[in-house]
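Example record used in the benchmark description.
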Amino acid sequence: MHNYKDIIKKFREKTILVIGDVMLDQYIWGKVERISPEAPIPIVSVTHREERLGGAANVALNIKTLGAKPIIACVIGNDIKAKRFIELCKEQEILTNGIIESTFRPTTVKTRVIGHNQHLLRVDEENDKPLQNNEEVLLLNKILEIIEQFKIDAIIFEDYDKGCITPNLIQFVQTLAKTRQIPITVDPKHRNFMQYYECTLFKPNLKELTIGLKTDIEKEKILDQLPTLCTEFMKLKRHHTIMVTLSELGVYIANHQESFHIPTQVRNLADVSGAGDTVISTATLCLTLGLNIKDIAIISNIAAGIVCEKVGVVPIFKDELEQRLS
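Model output (structure tokens):
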């Protein structure tokens, strides 16, 4: 039996570098009491608005609320949304040493309209083209400065296919991390799926895995087909561990010696948004403590279940994780 309280307490000793696509999440909350006479759509009477850190910034926020120290490396716009994004980072005491402001791309913004705790609409403002050469060089230099200045316990690639993570950046960081013996964990998307190699932990969801490998898995045979698929993929890319999130089926985790399926831990499902961010954050911190893969999957799965019980993209807090584990 583990003393989970001691495990979570040790998170505060860790510093995690999060590299990836950040965004500003805006929420318009309201009530729906009638249908528009102009079109068959609901009319939302706004009650309040809210702004939160999203994308890779939500991963950094999860690291922070779990008690550890996050640093973000990313590219945002040079606009009013960028200023608000940096303000939110400072409010949450997230280090902004690695943030680059670009005049060539806007800050990514996702606006969600929610009525009676139900998602009604999402509006995305973004430029998902790969970074320009000068932006890429600036970001690489920032990452190098951070790794030289801080003792980094792990690096997370949080890839949302918005262009911040490029093949050159992946190769640069993975080479640098290998020489410094820094573990790398990855939450991938489609564009760069096959660019990652020799990762300590690779965490796709089932859809990302099947698209990335250009294969299909029959829903009724997921747990039968996953072991062979994951084993072959790990050998091909030389990943140490793979963890596949399976939505209502829970989590599958494997390395080259053993594998486990952990059933879902959601009590009252409200919203799955941001659950993947929580999984990669929690798993990375557990990995830095040297926990075995089964414990990593169990703790991460429970953490994801907690945030799925809340509406919107929210982080996991160490106190509620400790309480649920105990």
